[in-house]
Amino acid sequence: MNIGIDARMFGPRTGGGGLGRYVEELIMGLLRHDRKNRYVLFLKKSNFNDCKISANNFEKRIADIGWYGIAEQIYMPRIIDKEKLDLVHFPHWNAPFAIKTPFVATIHDLILLEQPRSAHATTKHPAIYAIKHAAFRMVLKNTIQKSKQIIAVSNCTKNQILSRFPKAEKKTIVIYEGAGAQKSAKYPTEADLGAKGVRKPYFLYIGSAYPHKNLNFLVKAFAKFHKTHHDFQLVLVGKRDLFYDRLQNKLNECGPDNCAVRMFGFAAENELDALYENATAYLFPSLCEGFGLPPLEAMARKVPVLSSNRSCMPEILNSAALYFDPESETDLIAQMNEIVSNENTRNSLIRKGVQRIQNFSWDKMAKETITVYEKAYAKIK
C-alpha cells in the first residue's frame, strides 16, 4: 500500500502535547514495524527536520498549512491527492471535505461537543465562536461519515462517537495509546529546577490550560490546601497561550501568595523527566478527556496520580489512581492530604501504576494501526 499520514501535528512543540505525541509515536512505531508499505508524511516547515526517518519506504513532503482553517480545506486535498495514494491517515477529526483519497481518521475525543465552551471561556467573540463551532460539527460529521475506518483512543471516546453517529459502529475500533517514554540521557537536577523557581515538595500538572482542563478549580483547591501546607508548590507545565495568560492574571490578583503556584511554561523532554520524578504527585483535574496520556507518563516514572473521576479516566487508569470529583474542592483536598500523610497509600499507588502501564504500548498501537490500514484498503479494492 501507498499510505499518507497527515503529520503536520508531529511533535509536542508544533502539534501540542497529546496530539503531537500521538503523531510522533505513531510514525516512530511504523518506522520500527513496517518495511512493506510505502509512507508519505505531510509535515509543516516547523517540524519537517524534527521528523527523522531512517527507512527507504518513508518519504516526507512539505504541507505548511495550518489546521482547522479554510486554507486546510482548500490546499490539503490538492497536496495529498496529487500523490496518488491508496490511503491517507488523518490523526484528528479534521479531514478536508474535498479530499478524494480514501482515508482513515483517529478521533481522540469529542470535547467540543461534550464540553462546549461558554463565550467568556473562548478566545473568540461569541458570534465568531458560534460559526467556528458549527463548522467543527460539519467537518467532524463529514470525517466520520466518509472515513473507511475510525480509530477511537478509548472505549469512552468510541461510545461518545456512537451515541451521535450510530451508523459508524462497524468501522470504529479502539486502539489505546502507549505510555512510558524513554528517559532522556541527561536531564536537569533538582538544583536546575530550583533555578527556574521550582522547589520540592510540589504537586505537578502538565498539559494545556483549556477550560475543560479545569485549572481554575485546581488552583482554588490548592490555595486552600496551601493554608495548612505552606511548604508545597503547585507547578503548572504547558506552552503559554491566552488561556495560561488568563490564569496568570487571576493569580496576580491574589497578591503575593500566588508564588506557591509556579507557571513553568513549555518544558523540553529532558525537563519533563526531572519535573515528573521530583514531584510529590501528579494532579489531573480534567472534566473531559479522550485518553489522558500525562497520568500514565507519571505512573511510568513512579509518581502517584490523583485524577478526576470523569470520562475516560477510570477506564484508562483503573485502580492505579486516587480519584476525586473535579467539581469538589473538598474532595481533591482530602486526596491531597491522603497522599501527603499516608506512605502506604503512596507506595500502593506507585506499585499499581507501574503495573497499569504494562497495558499500554506505542509499539502495540502502531501494529494495530497497520491492521486498520489493511482493513480500510480491503474496502477500497
Strand order of the largest sheet: 3-2-1-4-5-6-7
Shape: globular
Tally of domains: 2
What's the CATH first level of the largest domain? Alpha Beta
Please supply descriptive tags for the structure shown above.
single chain; 7-stranded parallel β-sheet; alpha/beta; 381 residues; Rossmann fold; 6-stranded parallel β-sheet; 16 helices; 2 domains
Describe the structure.
This protein is α/β, with parallel strands linked by helices and 381 residues long. It has 2 domains: 2-178 and 361-380, Rossmann fold; 190-359, Rossmann fold, CATH 3.40.50. Helices cover 45% and strands 15% of the residues. The chain is built from 16 helices and 13 strands. The protein has helices at 12-15, 17-33, 45-48, 70-81, 111-114, 126-146, 155-164, 190-195, 215-226, 242-253, 269-277, 293-300, 313-317, 329-341, 343-356, 362-380; strands at residues 2-6, 38-43, 58-62, 87-90, 103-107, 149-152, 172-174, 202-206, 233-237, 261-265, 281-284, 305-308, 322-324. It has a 7-stranded parallel beta sheet with strand order 3-2-1-4-5-6-7, sandwiched between helices. It has a 6-stranded parallel beta sheet with strand order 10-9-8-11-12-13, sandwiched between helices. Strand 9 (233-237), helix 10 (242-253) and strand 10 form a beta-alpha-beta unit. Helix 12 (293-300) packs across helix 15 (343-356). It is globular, with a radius of gyration of 21 Å. It starts with a strand and ends with a helix. The model has no long low-confidence stretch (mean pLDDT 90).
